[in-house]
Amino acid sequence: ADSQKYTGIVEDCCCDYETVDSLNEEVLNPLLQELVTTPFFRYFKVKLWCDCPFWPDDGMCRLRDCSVCECEENEFPEIFKKPGRISSQDLVCQEGKPQATVDRTLDRKAFRGWVEIDNPWTSDDETDNAEMTYVNLQLNPERYTGYTGPSARRIWDAIYTENCPRYPSGEFCKEKKVLYKLISGLHSSISIHIAADYLLDEAANVWGKNLQLMYDRVLQYPDRVRNLYFTYLFVLRAVTKAADYLEQAEYDTGNPTEDLKTKSLMKQLLYNPKLQAACPIPFDEAKLWQGQSGPELKQQIQKQFRNISALMDCVGCEKCRLWGKLQVLGLGTALKILFSVDGQDHVDQHLQLQRNEVIALGNLLNRLSESVKLVRQMGPSAEKIMEGQ
Ligand code: FAD
């Protein structure tokens, strides 16, 4: 019965699950896997301090790397300021776990020359300052970190309840469902990566797949799997919609051989004949914001998304914060691309992306593509094992 679970057309898309799987495994995933190792895509600029604006005094972030800022009282929704029901035991910053920390082998100084070469997308908020870190993503894979308990739960709860409430009976408008599905799909992807690269034996430092966890958190909920596909196709649509912009973008890192490779891989991804033939419009964004309240709705959803992005500063585990920030920035970039349109529904000629946004977009697409592949490859055996128990 399970092989029947994900058949038919993916919601708001033009192709079915089987087509997405074969496109992903034969074409897109191999390209993306290579793309993220190129110098342009493997370094991400990020402020790793935990400037959590929502729960100012929970003692969660005592260490420098997750310190708390003092924000304007009226800047954030009241609901976030209520003290959480978190016991003092849980107030310990979870940074202490070695698997949760970020390897910063690459420091700012080593990177400086590269920054000067680059330019087209950097703006003031990208300016180097003492708080910015350049992280080699290849040295810091998204995987199990031990971050769990009330601190992690509180973030997901805030994301879902405050920003994209579950839609109970289809009464919510399409646009709000989209935001919910994007977040849920991202959440599925994070859980899949935790399960796919899990610390099975702490004492012996043995890492491997945890099929039980994959089943418990994602596979047993078909909606979560569907949302993962949805998010993947949404981001894929954004990337291909901005193809002309992304093709002409500057991928210079001062390493001509590598940079040529980056450009060539991008071209193969952006104008892929197999993708264009099998799934030309992976998500149909033209149907959104059509009604009278369109502009208002868009603003409201933008605000909610900004709140989600601010919540990433409250994640109490450095590596989770790194990937949380990157992926939310990637989603924000996809939203920006899809909804910066001119009257003809083409990408706005004035669309401007920062370098870091492009890096986030590429890496997010790769993470989602990996998750889709893992679900397809590991799903049936995980389900068999769990259902046999
Ligand atoms: P959680 O994953 O915390 O889920 C909480 C609740 O949300 C569930 O009980 C369920 O009701 C609902 N839910 C779960 N999945 C979905 C879905 N797909 N769609 C809709 N609703 C859902 N941990 C790591 O080990 N490595 C990481 O890299 C990492 N990154 C993180 C990044 C962020 C931004 C956050 C907030 C947390 C991260 N974590 C990471 C922690 C991890 O996501 C879990 O919170 C933690 O492992 C505890 O899991 P849980 O079983 O309590 O359920």
From TrEMBL:
BP terms from Gene Ontology: protein folding in endoplasmic reticulum
SS bond partners: 61-66, 317-320
Annotated binding of FAD, by residue: 143, 145, 156, 184, 187, 217
Keyword annotations from UniProtKB, A to Z: Disulfide bond, Electron transport, Endoplasmic reticulum, FAD, Flavoprotein, Glycoprotein, Membrane, Oxidoreductase, Redox-active center, Signal, Transmembrane, Transmembrane helix, Transport
Domain of life: Eukaryota
Necessary cofactors: FAD
GO cellular component labels: endoplasmic reticulum membrane
Membrane topology: Peripheral membrane protein
Protein's name according to its UniProt entry: Uncharacterized protein
Residues of the full protein shown: 49 to 437 of 462
